Structure formats: structure tokens, C-alpha cells
């Protein structure tokens, strides 16, 4: 993965209603975008990236739909990395931290952070400037 902070040259955005079908639409769009960008569907990061994406969109649909009727996914890519951000307008910015053995809820984001770290990537939660929403950004090496 590139060590520079240069913007990734490839971009695609998807905005969908925060409803159940959003998860499938996001996955299918990701598969289409990756194919257009020449990323081999058999690359070891692809299936896990789709799982991470699915979990993040599911979280937006389940937990943010009341205050955020739309979910936006931004895909970005470069020669050696893939990034995607899932944005909703719910103001809560969840912590992205290691698992808590006593937790009964919130294990989806634990899975996201573990999978991302296992692939050598990063996961960051960024609040909107107005504090009224957030984006969870995932960056993975290819």
C-alpha cells in the first residue's frame, strides 16, 4: 500500500435508501467497480472486502435509518490499494476497537476491525464537520 497521502485516482459513489436491499446493491456495485478497475475477483482481499462492506452497510440500515434515510458508499482505488467509505447521517460515531469478551452487542464492528487489520488495512470512523453524521473508511492493500 502506498505510504503517500495522495488521493486515489479511481472513484465511484453509490447512494441508496437505508433499507435491506442496500446491502446487496452495495456488494453488487463493489463487484462491478472492482471488475471495471481490473481487480481480479479471486484476489485474496476481495471476498473479505465485500464482507466488511456488507457489515458496514447493514449497520447503517439497522442503526441509522431513522435519522438517515440514505446511505452513501464511496469507492476509491489506486494501483495498490482499495478504499471505501460508508456514510450515514446518524450522529453516533462508533468506536473502532478490539473485541470486548463481555459485549453482547457491537460484534459486527469488531469483526470489521479484525478483518481489516488481518488484511493489513486500516479502519477509521470520521464524523461529519457538522457532527450530524459519519463515515467509516476502510483502506486495504491490493
TrEMBL record:
<dbReference type="InterPro" id="IPR050267">
    <property type="entry name" value="Anti-sigma-factor_SerPK"/>
</dbReference>
<feature type="domain" description="Histidine kinase/HSP90-like ATPase">
    <location>
        <begin position="51"/>
        <end position="142"/>
    </location>
</feature>
<keyword id="KW-0418">Kinase</keyword>
<keyword id="KW-0547">Nucleotide-binding</keyword>
<keyword id="KW-0808">Transferase</keyword>
<dbReference type="GO" id="GO:0005524">
    <property type="term" value="F:ATP binding"/>
</dbReference>
<keyword id="KW-0723">Serine/threonine-protein kinase</keyword>
<protein>
    <submittedName>
        <fullName>ATP-binding protein</fullName>
    </submittedName>
</protein>
<dbReference type="InterPro" id="IPR036890">
    <property type="entry name" value="HATPase_C_sf"/>
</dbReference>
<keyword id="KW-0067">ATP-binding</keyword>
<dbReference type="InterPro" id="IPR003594">
    <property type="entry name" value="HATPase_dom"/>
</dbReference>
<dbReference type="Pfam" id="PF02518">
    <property type="entry name" value="HATPase_c"/>
</dbReference>
